[in-house]
């Protein structure tokens, strides 16, 4: 169960303590990420409860809120198939972007 979670609002957004060392920053990030993961799990749990209650319905009005859970179709390009079947066309349009991934283990 999650406890002692502070909600950040625009009124208290500047509540972060002034961090002096990188080690302190990492410690704080680990704590925040842990709480974030817990909140995401809790959010998913409650979403599943509402989805189960909705069944096949697309909308639900409850507790002053309108919840929608709609089906939609999404089209995506099959890059693997394109690369195999039309490698020249794939090479013509593929772009590489260099990025950096930030992670803490």
Rounded to an integer in angstroms, the radius of gyration calculated over CA atoms is 22 Å
Instruction: Count all strands and give the number.
Output: 2
What is the string of SSEs from the N terminus onward?
Answer: HEEHH
Q: Tally the helices: what do you get?
A: 3
Bulk shape: flat
Q: Note the beta-strand portion.
A: 5-15%
The low-pLDDT segments are 1-5
Main structural class = mainly alpha
> If you average the pLDDT, what whole number results?
87
Helix content: 40-55%
Strand order of the largest sheet: 1-2
Write down the oligomeric state: single chain
Please give the domain count.
Answer: 1
- Alpha-carbon distance between the termini? 23 Å
Which key phrases capture this entry?
105 residues, mainly alpha, two-stranded antiparallel sheet, 3 helices, 2 strands, 45% helix, disordered N terminus
Structure commentary:
This protein is mainly alpha-helical. It has one domain. It has helices at 22-54, 79-85, 87-93; strands at 59-62, 65-68. A two-stranded antiparallel ribbon has the order 1-2. 0% of the residues are buried. The model is unreliable at 1-5 (pLDDT under 50).
In short:
By secondary structure, the protein is mainly alpha-helical.
Map the helices and strands.
Elements: H1 22-54, E1 59-62, E2 65-68, H2 79-85, H3 87-93
Antiparallel strand pairs: 1-2
Helix pairs in contact: 2-3
